[in-house]
């Protein structure tokens, strides 16, 4: 039973870490401050739909582009791992945020910056492509969809989660996620190097 579920678990965890659903909550609340409940739900629907569409397009078109220009799985694992490592290191720095939020933002934030790059950003896209190469389509797509459902739930319940965890708690959770992301990046580089030498 575990053998069947193993690819799904091993793809779910890195994508969950990259998405950082809990860490997105303070930024989401800042973006929708003053919005009505109806506007919030519209923004959440737009953001999750955008995030899924962008991720799916990148997964299939990105993979085709890589094949077209002759980039191997090992090449992408090394390059993607290095990129993920630097993204996680930058986000671990004090005061770092995923995006810049202007003071006078409007309510049309579902597509940008919430859907992308806040939910589906470089870390998610890179991680998803690497999982696709390692564990194939079904586990990766399933894990991606489950993670987007988790994002939708956390955004719907954002106020309650913030009351429980507080700003410091969500920030601490994000830092732990970024450390895990850095470790996953190192693992991907290691697998890529092993792949090159095993040819």
Care to describe what's here?
This protein has 199 residues and is mostly helical. The protein has one domain (2-197). Helices cover 81% and strands 0% of the residues. Helix 1 (2-19) crosses helix 7 and helix 3 crosses helix 6. The two termini are 32 Å apart. The model has no long low-confidence stretch (mean pLDDT 87).
In brief:
By secondary structure, the protein is mainly alpha-helical. It has helices at 2-19, 25-31, 37-68, 73-92, 110-119, 122-135, 137-156, 158-197.
The number of domains is 1
Task: Give the overall shape.
Answer: globular
| Helix and strand composition category | mainly alpha
| Main sheet attributes: strand count, strand direction, barrel closure | none
Q: How many runs of DSSP E, i.e. beta strands?
A: 0
Number of helical runs?
8
Specify the helix fraction band.
over 70%
